[in-house]
Amino acid sequence: MSAVTDVENRVSGAGGVAPGYRAGRTLPLRVEALRQWRRRRTLVMGGILTALPFILMFAFAVGGGPGSRDGGSGRVTLIDTATASGANFAATCLFVSAGFLLVVPVALFCGDTVASEASWSSLRYLLASPVPRARLLWSKLVVALGFSLAAMVLLPLVALAAGTAAYGWGPLKLPTGGSLPAGDTVGRLAVAVAFVFVSQLVTAGLAFWLSTRTDAPLGAVGGAVGLTIVGNVLDAVTALGSWREFLPAHWQFAWADALQPQLEWGGMIKGAVVSVSYALVLFALAFRGFARKDITS
User: Fold this and answer.
1) Cβ partners under 8 Å of residue 178, min gap 6
2) Helices 182-199 and 133-167 meet at what angle, rounded to 10?
3) What are the phi and psi torsion angles at 177 (to 5°)?
4) Which has the closest alpha carbon to 77: 251, 256, 268, 232?
5) Beta carbons within 10 angstroms of residue 171's beta carbon
6) By the 8 A CB rule, do 211 and 111 touch?
7) What's 27's DSSP letter?
8) Are the C-beta atoms of residues 197 and 149 closer than 8 Å to each other?
9) Which helix (H) or strand (E) holds 172?
10) Alpha-carbon 162 to chain mean position
11) Angle between helices 103-119 and 201-213 (to 10 degrees)
12) What is the pLDDT of residues 274-286, one digit of tens each?
């Protein structure tokens, strides 16, 4: 039996609870959030997401605007309307980043959180404090999901502000024709961001589960990103037919239904159910496996 397990048994076992000890007061969320906020990778990821809208604006300025790439085909895409208004620019930034870029911060925040403690050999000291294992995982998971959501909100928020300053505030021009009133665009974009976050819960679950299984943060983060890419590849195999509907990647762009004249919920509801179902199983595996794991690092 490890020293960590021995301490846990002394606190919660037949010997009773130590005077003044309250499991619910160990590792408060604000303490964990502050620890994660001070990490260099948090600042770097925030800088990348903040810089992306300005990089796209520069690319549009150098390339003569997105509409110049149409080539006379007559087909209008969301990117072709990027400079029509600030709302269009924010929607374009969400479109170009939802497939991969926004996967990275989710995998990073959820996959690095437990594995990094193990790699620093500080995990056993946290548990010996003692912090109950379930409490430790719960605190880290809530904070990781909070930072993931903040990353997804940051990108379109910066894009909306920068796009409005550069291209003006106006209705959201739709590639299919027509437009959404300017007053409705913020709400629709909020729905789109919320669905993107829910759709990425699968990646969060994968990263968090792998983080409890390995002492290598890069392995947990890379494994989650890699498996997400595999899901995208499988979704591209049309021979799978209706089986693709059970893949979270199949619904990753269902948020585009929020940017239609009539808001369509069907695809987003199906995608949310698939994503949440996978995520709950993966989170349960993480808690179950970590509760039985012998912590030696």
Assistant:
1) 261
2) 150
3) 110, 150
4) 256
5) 17
6) yes
7) S
8) yes
9) strand 172-173
10) 23
11) 20
12) 999 999 999 999 9
Nearest C-alpha neighbor of 284 from the set 229, 194, 205, 219: 205
* Terminal-residue alpha carbon distance, the chain: 14
- Rounded average pLDDT over 195-214: 93
* 90 CA to centre of own chain: 18
CA distance 260 to 128: 54
Q: Distance between CA 242 and CA 116 in Å, rounded?
A: 39
Give the pLDDT band (50/70/90) at residue 12.
Answer: very low
User: Which single residue is written with the structure tokens 């374009």?
Assistant: 92
Q: pLDDT tens, 167-189?
A: 999 888 887 777 888 888 889 99
C-alpha 209/C-alpha 28 separation (Å) is 22
**Euclidean distance between CA atoms 23 and 253, whole angstroms:** 41
∠ Cα 289 291 210 (to 5°): 35
Instruction: Return the number of other C-beta atoms located less than 10 Å from residue 166's C-beta.
Output: 15
Alpha-carbon span 5 to 1, nearest angstrom: 6
Residues 200, 248 contacting (CB under 8 angstroms):
no
Structure tokens, 226? 């890699």
User: What pLDDT shows up at residue 14?
Assistant: 43
Supply the DSSP string of 35-86, one letter for each residue.
HHHTSHHHHHHHHHHHHHHHHHHHHHHHHT-GGGGSTT-----TGGGTTS-H
- Give the integer Cα–Cα distance in Å for 243 and 250: 10
In degrees rounded to 5, what are phi and psi of residue 98?
Answer: -65, -35
Contact yes or no for 155/46 (Cβ under 8 A): no
Structure token pair of residue 73:
């085909």
Side-chain-side CA neighbours of 182 within 13 Å: the count stands at 9
Place of tokens 């130590």: 18
